[in-house]
Amino acid sequence: MILYILVVLIPTLAITGWAAWRVKSTYAKWSKVDSGINMDAFDFARRLLDKQGLSHVRIEPTPGTLTDHYDPRGKILRVSTQVADASALSTAGVTTSAPRLSVAAAAVIAHEVGHALQDERKEPMMALRQAIVPAAQFGSGIAPWLIIAGVFLQVTGLAIVGLIGFGAAVLFTFATLPVEIGASGKALAFVNGLGMVGDKQTGARDVLKAAAWTYVAGALTALLTFLYYAWLIFGRRD
Ligand SMILES: [Zn+2]
Question: Do β-strands 76-80 and 69-71 pair in parallel, antiparallel, or remain unpaired?
């Protein structure tokens, strides 16, 4: 238990806490800066999608903060209400007649369009990641319970089945990294092509980099947990 707290729990909380704080503060900073793109969030998403030949991809609002995502099964790009509202940039009492898109909102939307393009091009890492989804869901849901039950009941076979399942969940978090970084690379090219250069491009890069660190944190904590489970099953000889 002490080992779990020292080796898994504390590092996990530290890494994920740091990544979450970084995303929040970077997003807050750049959501106050005008991208110079004279569109609201939905028009901007539509424009980018159409430009990439993705006019079949639909756009929907979705509630929450940083919940923006692309759904490859439904071919839907979901824009969070936070990003959509932020597109109505409110700079201390100044109300503009035209909708203004913040640097942060533009970066997030462009990133999701990057995922839509990865899906359209059937990029191999995206396809691999999608293929692991069912195993990963099993791995992060039931597998830890199989491991714990197997260890306590001393049924090693059961614990190993659980460990393999959890391994799929770990693999998923690592397959996510190149997909996320690839989408951000595309996003930067998109916003650059729309005139977001200099400081604004730096801002977009900062927002996307901070978001990428949350996925790195997720992969690291999944790996730590996996190693701890493996030690529970194979390492303890008491
Ligand atoms: Zn993404």
Answer: antiparallel
Which one from 60, 112, 120, 123 is the annotated catalytic residue? 112
Establish whether 112 is a catalytic residue: yes
Q: How many helices (H) and strands (E) does the chain have?
A: 9, 3
- Could you count the other beta carbons within 10 Å of the beta carbon of residue 35? 25
Mean pLDDT score, 2-27: 90
What is residue 236's three-state secondary structure?
Answer: coil
Q: How far is CA 59 from CA 47, 109, 117, in A?
A: 11, 11, 14
Q: Measure 180 CA to ligand 1 centroid, in angstroms.
A: 5
Residues forming a β-bridge with 59: 77
Is 171 in a helix, a strand, or coil? helix
Q: What is the dihedral of CA 40, 115, 58, 190, to 10 degrees?
A: 40
Paired residues of 79 in beta bridges: 61
Cβ-proximal residues to 133 (8 Å cutoff; 6+ apart), any chain = 172
Max CA distance (Å), the chain: 71
pTM for the whole structure: 0.86
**Chain segment 164-223, per-residue pLDDT in tens:** 999 999 999 999 999 999 999 999 999 988 888 889 999 999 999 999 999 999 999 999
Q: Is there a contact between 133 and 194 (Cβ–Cβ < 8 Å)?
A: no
DSSP assignment letter at 69: E
Give me the DSSP letters along 39-65: S-HHHHHHHHHHHTT-TT-EEEEE-SS
